[in-house]
Write a structure and sequence with these properties.
By secondary structure, this protein is an alpha/beta fold. The protein has helices at 3-21, 33-45, 64-77, 87-91, 100-119, 184-194, 229-236, 256-262, and strands spanning 25-28, 54-57, 81-84, 123-125, 142-145, 173-176, 208-209, 222-223.
Length: 266
């Protein structure tokens, strides 16, 4: 079987299994290439009509191009989009200048928790991948969180031979990761095959492009001449630069991402 077909089949199976097993689901849409691919797969899994809402956590610092792309694609694909913000933290003046750990935790993690609590969502799909960043490599496809959304990465259920554990206690919040087995190159080859529209920030302009999208103060473009999806794929086959080299929070302190994710960061 074609490797992309195998990955697509597994992701669609995970979507349908989760929809069968759990109630009150939502999907996080960060506007990046991974979560947009995840949305594309959800539309395939459910024959064009995504049966759960999409949620986007707007920190107030996102690139304007991302917001324009989000609103345009949400309208075109007719999805139920819920936008959340930690308004209390924003009104209190939270910015990266107060510390990137504190800012990410307040505006992203707590913003997501508030939205999930407010709407009563018990499970959420996310477009993370194992090859993206160290702490994500420790994840499970069906990943339980406690009632405070905290993740105990030292005590997780095994998923041997792709046998997924979907039996959790009633107070468990579940993170579901249908893209966990994909690589960055898989994502771009699938985007090319399916002709998935992506945020223009990924395409090179004036010799630079973004490989990972985030908030303007903490997100930097990398040197690149790849202005098409084909050129991005060829670039990824030879580059030695890490995917998240342009994400400042990854370089703030040792194990910062793991600490953030243990508290519920995406």
């Amino acid at each position: 079987m074609d490797p992309l077909d195998a990955l697509e089949n597994q992701s669609i199976y995970i979507f349908r299994e989760a929809q069968r097993k759990f109630k009150d689901l939502a999907m996080l849409w960060s506007i990046g290439k991974d979560s947009t691919t995840l949305l594309w797969l959800a539309r395939k899994a459910f024959f064009g009509k995504v049966p759960f809402p999409l949620v986007h956590i707007d920190t107030g610092f996102k690139h304007p191009t991302m917001i324009e792309y989000r609103d345009r694609m949400a309208k075109e694909w007719e999805v139920d989009l819920i936008v959340g913000q930690n308004e209390e933290a924003i009104c209190a003046g939270m910015t990266p200048e107060k510390g990137r750990f504190a800012c990410c935790n307040a505006l992203k993690t707590q913003g997501l928790q508030q939205l999930l609590d407010r709407h009563g969502f018990k499970g959420v799909f996310l477009g993370i991948r194992r090859d993206e960043e160290g702490s994500r490599a420790k994840e499970r496809i069906f990943s339980p969180r406690d009632k405070n959304f905290e993740w105990n990465y030292k005590d997780q259920p095994p998923e041997l031979w792709d046998q997924f554990n979907t039996s959790f206690g009633p107070d468990t919040h579940v993170r579901i990761h249908p893209l966990l087995s994909w690589t960055e190159l898989d994502i771009w080859e699938y985007i090319r095959r399916e002709e998935i529209p992506v945020c223009p920030l990924y395409l090179s302009k004036d010799g630079k492009r973004f490989r990972s999208l985030g908030c303007v103060p903490c997100n930097f473009p990398l040197d690149s001449g790849a202005s098409t999806v084909d050129e991005i794929i060829e670039e990824l086959k030879v580059t030695k630069t890490p995917e998240r080299a342009g994400r400042a929070q990854d370089h703030e302190a040792a194990y910062m991402m793991q600490k953030l994710r243990s508290l519920g960061y995406m």
